[in-house]
Structure formats: C-alpha cells, structure tokens
Amino acid sequence: MVIIINSIIELLTTKIPLGNWVENLVNFLINNFSGPLNNFSSFIEFIVNGIESILAFPHPLVLIAIFAVAAWKLKGKNMAIFVALGLSLVLNLGMWEPLVITLASIITSVLIALFIGIPIGIIKAHNKVVDLITRPILDFMQTIPPFVYLIPALMFFGLGNVSGVIATVVFAIAPPIRLTYLGIKQVDEELEEAGHAFGANWWQILLKIELPGAMPSIMMGINQCIMLSLSMVVIAAMIGAGGLGKPVLRSLNVVDIGLGFEAGLGVVIIAMVLDRMFGRDS
Amino acid sequence: MKIKAKNLYKIFNGNDQEEIELLKDGMSKDDILGKTGATVGINNASFEVEEGEIFVIMGLSGSGKSTLLRCINRLVEPTSGSVEVDGTDVMDLNKEELREFRKEKFGMVFQHFALFPYRTVLENAEFGLEIEGVDKETRKEKAMTALKQVGLEGYEDQMPDQLSGGMQQRVGLARALAVDTDILLMDEPFSALDPLIKKDMQDKLLELYEHIDKTIVFITHDLDEALKLGDRIAIMKDGEIVQVGNHEEILTNAENDYVAEFVQDVNRSRVLTAEDIMDKPEAVLYKQDGLRTALHKMRRNELGSIFVLGENREYRGIVTIEDVVESINKDKENLDDIIKEVPLAEPDESVNDLFSKIADIDTPLPVLDKNNKLKGVIVKTHVVANLASEKV
C-alpha cells in the first residue's frame, strides 16, 4: 500500500519533460528540414522585399497621393483628407522609411494569413473532422503569448523580417479562419437548398451562395487580421524585424519618450488608415 | 403520368428498416418516436400527378408535406420507395445525374422566398440559368421574360430587400419560371404573405397557369387555398396521405374523421346556402324566342347552355348549345322539343347538399323560389371559387 502511494507521489512530483520534448521537436525540424525551411524563408523574404521596393520606389508624396486617391474612391472625401494628413505627418516626423518597411511586412503577413486562412475556414465549415481538429489549435494560437513562439520562429528563420512575418501570421491567422467559417455557417439554409434545387454543384454553391453570403463576415476577418498584424509590429521588432517597431523598442531601451511617441504615433496612423480603408463601413 | 410516387418512407434519425417494419405493423408515429427515438417523416405515401394539373398537398405543420415535396427532387432523400418523373426513377440517379435532372425538370419556389440578398432582382431571376451555364445574353432575355410574366418589369435593378413580401415572392416565382422546366414545386409559397397579397398571388398564379404548360405541385396548410388552386388535393396527416381527391370528393366524402374535421374547420359550406353562392342569371331565353335567338344569346354571353322562362318569368327548363345547333341544322324553329329538365335547387338549400347535385350534371343548377321563378344560377366552377374566396 505504502509502496503504491509512494510511487503515485513520485509520479506526480516528477516533472513531465514537456519543455524538452518541444525543444527536441524544434531541433529535429531544424536539423532535418533546413533545406525547405531556407527555401520558404527566402520566398517570404522575396515577397517582403518586393513589396517594400515597390512602395519605396515612388517619392513619398506620390505614394501619399496614391493612397489618398484610393481612400477617396473607397470611402469618400473625408477619408482622403485624413489619409493625406496622417501620412504627411509620418513623413514629417522622419518615420517614412520604417513605415514603408512595416507596411511591406504587414501586407505580406496579411496576404499569407488570408491565403491560408480563408481556405481553411471554408474547409472547416464543410468538414466536421477539420472543424474539430482546428478548434483547439486556433484556441492555442490565439491565447498563447506571442513571445513563446518568437523563439522557435527565430530558430527556424533567423533574425529578421521573415521571423517577424511568420510570428505575425501565426498571431493574425485565427480571425480570417474563424470568421470565414462563421460566415459560411450563417448562410441561410433555404438559400443553399435553393441552390441544390436548381441543380448547383459544390463549387457553384460555394462561389455563388456561400461566399457572397459570408462576405460581410469575411471582410470583418480581413479587418481583424490587419489589426492584429499591426499589433505585432513592436513584438516582431524584438526578433529583428525592421520598421516602426524598431524605434519604439530603441526608445524603450534608452528611455527616449519623444522617439517612442513619434514611432508609436506612426503605428497608430497606419492602423487607422488601414482599418478605415478595409472593412468597417461607417 | 408526370410524377408517380410509390410507397415512400422517410425516417429521420433511425435504423430505417426497423421503423418501416414497425409502421407496417401499424405502430403510430408517436409510439415509434418513444420506442426508437426516430421521427417518421413520411409513412407509405403513394400518389400520382398528371401532366398539366395543379396537385395540392395539404396538411398541418409537421404533417410531412414539405418533406414529401422534397422527396420528388430528392432534396430530402427518401428512406425507401420510388419516385418516377416522366418515367425516370429519381432514386436511381447518381449525384451528377440528379443535378442534371433537377436542372432539366424542376423549378422550385420556397416559403421564405430564398432570394439571394446580394443579387439584384434580375440576377436572382437569372440564377437557375446561370447554374445551367446559359450565356449572358440569353440569360438576361429569359429572366426578363419571366419577370415580365410575374409583373415585375422595371424592378430588375432593385435589391430584394427593397421589395415587399409579395413582390419578393414574385421574384422567387420568376426565378423558377425562367429555367422553363415542366414541373414547378411550390413549398407553401404564399403562407408568409398577408391575406390580401396572398389572394393576389393566387390569382396571379392561376392566370400564369393558363398560359404556361406546367405541372405544379403545391404545398399549403390552407384549405381555402387548396380548393382555389388545386385540380386535385392530397391531405396529409402524420406523414401519411389520408385522402386524395378533387374538390367535391374532399368536401363531401371525407374518408375519415381527420379529413372531415379539417374540412369542417376551415370550410364555410355548412352554413352557406344556395342563395349565398348563386350568380345572377346573366342571360335567359323566353319561350317565344326562336332557335337563332338562343344561339345568338349563348354566343354573346359565352354560355354552353341557357335557361328558358315562360310567362311571368316562370322557369321552364334549359337548352344546351349542342341541341340548338343540331335543331338549326335540321331546319327546326321551335325551342320546345329540346328543353331539358335538370335538378333544381331552393334558395335556402345548404351548399353541402348542392355538391351532390352539381357533381352529376354538366349544366348550371337553377335556383327557384316558391313561385317557380328563376332566382339565380349555380355554376359548378364558381361554387368552389366562391367558397375559397372571402366573398361571402
């Protein structure tokens, strides 16, 4: 009896080497998949750099003008004025270059998150097994502190923008998946029935009924994805991502209140511009 | 025979065969739910729909009528039984064949319209054609024709939520008409509309039905609607078809208590009398009129027969157009020889009693007062329409 109790106590007090397992797994992946990881890394780097050079190519004022016109077309005159003033302020504060880098990483992260997230959301809405499997994974990704996966991201992809992008995608991919899923689930069953009654196949139901019906929800997912990506700007800077996060981090280290505020304001402005321009109709 | 359904069963959440056996042993729907947890949707339903008729399936909510309708195009998969449409057993089709079959055979109209809120009225009407892969021009043309048919010309660029309920259902109807299928499946299409609009839509459907060559299966929980629209009516209860018949059969020969109760509940015929439902005689003949006058009056009023009155408007009998024409061809001039006797009705006779009288004759039924004067005419086709409408 005593022996049994003792062994139970021993079992309970012996630490499960969960940390070791994860470390081993990461090491295993790095050792055995360095080739594909490198390829993936350079692919993402290529996209980020590509977008960055496109954005950096025209004179800042030209880019501001382009943004303002786009805002005009999308949301009207007031929005155009706001965009022009906000971006000009960033330019004036000398934050243009970091802003372009941030924008490039955000666009890359959001594109990857949507490219993966929306199809997963669609599959999740049609397949119970996928739904059950993805649910805890999404909970995990949404609640685990981002700092925890900064380390593996760093180990896989090294210091720099790519790690930042990957960490951002992990952090921001849940809303597009969840809201695509939700949007499709909420499509009126009678509408789908109407589709079937007229002989529509799976693709026609998806493209002509489910996705258009889910569009408001999907747009919300895209908006959330952008916002979450922006909230990762500073954290991503900790693993070497460039952009507006960098001066914020530096100001923290040297207690430079002014610099911190200026860079922070840059993040706020770009966040408001993107938020207002994509989704959320007032 | 356009549609022929035989021994259809639909069991929800069950072992299927087990429940079907229990049903065959005479167990009730409720007992089966208690014993096995399965819900009986349809219990051994067989019916036939003839080409070009309006077949109404009527029942209270939960009676399985919508499920039965969906078994025809297999939106609901029957547990067992067969459904033949134009000789093809729908149950034998694989998924791809079924999709093609639906495109080719069925248009469907839904209770809550099922319009796509992000599509304009025209785009909604085009939906079925789009699924069929019809090119843009033809699609638009056909959809516009359908919208015109339902009286929605000029609304094609509106969004559905800008339209009233009645107009939305017209869009639903146009969508089903645009694909130009033989069969129209209508699942309580007018139940969600308010009474006035509902009557309007029924009239619209009947008017359309005159001009299109379609077989319609129509679901309703409203006996008035069933009587107004249906050539034949099937009454359902607890997943079973308890009676199929035309108006008179349903109203006069209820096959069991359920139908009788149903009919009594909704039907005003028990308190109505001949006087309430008769029409004023549009045209009559007088004894001295000749054959030519008779023919002329009948032609002008589009009548197949006409009543003959004597002195002081006293009722004498009826002559039919066939007899008149025959007499004229034989160069006769007198009406007397061809005046026929038909059953008579009194003004305070109940409508229920009238049904048996009308059922047997081809001519209108004269309503006479005590002095043998013609007070009114009861025309067979009007009786049911009068009962169905709120006219009284």
Automatic annotation (TrEMBL), chain A:
It is found in: Cell membrane; Membrane. One of its GO terms (cellular component) is ATP-binding cassette (ABC) transporter complex. It is a multi-pass membrane protein. Signal peptide: none annotated. PROSITE patterns: ABC_TM1. The chain crosses the membrane at residues 46-72, 79-96, 102-126, 147-174, 221-242, 254-274. InterPro entries: MetI-like, MetI-like_sf. It comes from the Bacteria. Keywords: Cell membrane, Membrane, Transmembrane, Transmembrane helix, Transport. Belongs to the binding-protein-dependent transport system permease family. This is Glycine betaine/proline transport system permease protein. It comes from Halanaerobium saccharolyticum.
Automatic annotation (TrEMBL), chain B:
It is found in: Cell inner membrane. Residues 278-338 form the CBS domain. PROSITE patterns: ABC_TRANSPORTER_1, ABC_TRANSPORTER_2, CBS. It is a peripheral membrane protein. The keyword Isomerase does not apply. Pfam families: ABC_tran, CBS. One of its GO terms (biological process) is response to osmotic stress. Gene3D superfamilies: CBS-domain (3.10.580.10), P-loop containing nucleotide triphosphate hydrolases (3.40.50.300). It catalyses: a quaternary ammonium(out) + ATP + H2O = a quaternary ammonium(in) + ADP + phosphate + H(+). Residues 27-263 form the ABC transporter domain. Keywords: Amino-acid transport, ATP-binding, CBS domain, Cell inner membrane, Cell membrane, Membrane, Nucleotide-binding, Transport. GO terms for cellular component: plasma membrane. One of its GO terms (molecular function) is ATP binding. Its EC number is 7.6.2.9. Belongs to the ABC transporter superfamily. The complex is probably composed of two ATP-binding proteins, two transmembrane proteins and a solute-binding protein. This is Quaternary amine transport ATP-binding protein.
